[in-house]
Amino acid sequence: xxxxxxxxxxxxxxxxxKKAESNIxxxxxxxxxxxxxxxxxxxKVEIVVQLQEAQKEYKExxxxxxxxxxxxxxxxxxxxKEVL
Length: 84
Known about the structure:
Layout: H1 6-67, H2 71-83
């Protein structure tokens, strides 16, 4: 096995440090991109949650109208009974 001189060792380790720094920089860039995608995903989840809540409220309102719990419907039914 060939021995390395001190200068060669220093050069070798400097190259290793440069590679490590480059990898750290790339990892930070990937982290930032992942954070951006996470923020987008959180926004989409919030929209889905709001949509589900709106659909639930709409369904409940339709059920109230059908069952006659709506005050306007109750008044109309009372007027119909009075007329009949």
